[in-house]
Amino acid sequence: MQQLVFATNNRHKLQEVAAKIKGQLTLLTLEDIGCTDEIAETGLTFKANASIKSRHIWDRYKLSCFGDDSGLGIDALNGEPGIYSARYAGTHGNHKANNDKVLANLLGVTNRKAQFRTVISLMWQGEEHFFEGVVAGTIRTEVCGTDGFGYDPIFQPDGYDITFAEMSMEEKNAISHRAIAVEKLIVFLNENAGGLNFTAKILTSC
């Protein structure tokens, strides 16, 4: 049985990917491969950071794997927070502070167009493949909703009158940037791995 590693330290991403895969593969933890590494995201693009993660696991463990990098880009802020989305307010993973900073920076701004972007880097049998997902929307003037994570409470996707944080996981997974990228990954695996009958190892601290 082949193995696939997902290099992430974000449990919300794990939940969303698991829900999207819907049991087509088995999700295991970091303990299974004994990874305790800290992988520094030193790239200047989402693509570069995703590649750093997947290549680190391939180079060290020689296991097929994928890593992703995602973020929010806001037109009026020249694409910020971009690759710094998780630490926009200074502390990594402080979602409230990040949202508050965005809302403060957009105070009085009428152009609130934005987009979420995900890039997945898959190292498959030593070769790298990329899959991208983008969803456009607008930034609300206040926090709305309690589900999701990150900037979900202030991001309203085009064509909807609610934020990601007001959607169920199923609703968000039907349209989100990460879902689009994962769907492309699944298509690739179905075409190149003989279907999704293999084990996926998920890194929870790298």
- Number of helix segments? 5
Q: Nearest-angstrom radius of gyration?
A: 17 Å
How many distinct domains? 1
The rough form would be described as globular
CATH fold node name: Maf protein
Multimeric status of the protein: single chain
- What percent of the residues sit in helical stretches (DSSP H or I)? 25-40%
List low-confidence stretches: none
| Class inferred from helices and paired strands | alpha/beta
Distance between the termini: 24 Å
User: Any idea what the CATH architecture is?
Assistant: Alpha-Beta Complex
CATH C-level name: Alpha Beta
Query: What is the element string, with H for helices and E for strands?
Result: EHEHEHEEEHHE
Biggest sheet strand order reads: 2-7-1-3-4-5-6
The biggest sheet amounts to: 7 strands, mixed
> How much strand content do the residues show?
15-25%
Overall pLDDT metric: 86
